[in-house]
Amino acid sequence: MTSTTSLSGPSDTQTVYTTPARSDFILTGLCVTPTVSGGVRLDVAGFGGIAHLGTLGDNGCYTFSEGVLLPRDSAITCSTSAGASPGSYFCTISGFE
Question: Does residue 32 register a pLDDT over 80?
Answer without folding.
Answer: yes
